[in-house]
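Researcher: We're teaching a course module on how sequence relates to structure. For the next exercise, students receive a sequence and then see the predicted structure as tokens, so they can try to spot secondary structure elements on their own. Here is the exercise chain.
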Amino acid sequence: MQGIAIALLACLVLLVSARRFAIPPVPFYIGAGIVLGQAGLGLVAADEISAFLTRMGLLFLLFSMGLQLRPQQILERRSSFAGAGIIDLALNFPLGLAAALLLGIPVADALIIAAAFYISSSAMAVASLIENKKLFLREAETVVWLMVFEDIVLVILVALFAASGREAVTLIATSGAAVAVCFLVVHALQDPLKALLSREDEIPIVFAFSSV
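Model: And here is the predicted structure for the students to work with:
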């Protein structure tokens, strides 16, 4: 708990400083983690509590991102979003692969490096949009859905790297089925969910926390 308190204090100081100079605080958070963590002063160590808080923070960050998206506009611009995602994949993945191969890295490892080079950090991108109050802009939706496209590709790549043959297909199919089931359930219960989330007491907060 002492490490968490130190980390929160450092983040508070960095956030206030970043706001004062109107710059995104996310890179400073990462730098503080390096300085205070095992690679630096060793004041903050990873444990089960910090790992849990990290997962919950990322989940709520992505959840807040979903609250800002408008699916009907996404459907209207689906071709442009898909095109942007394909262009992103076609440019960045081969570039990372070529660089790794030129350095003499084996093909299997080069594919992993290329995937890392291609995938952007959804957490950093969305946090930057939220911190700078630009999530409501029209072009922000393109950025967000580009991150979603990359995350979908990442699931496929992880399945291909971690498994082989039928196991990879099963993992991809299971992930797709889980997303489809969640969408269908929410769509079928949209009226009760709207009524529940429009309440002015603590029920919507408890429900959202439990769901995430």
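Model: If you want an answer key for the exercise: The first helix runs from residue 2 to 20. Residues 60-211 form one domain.
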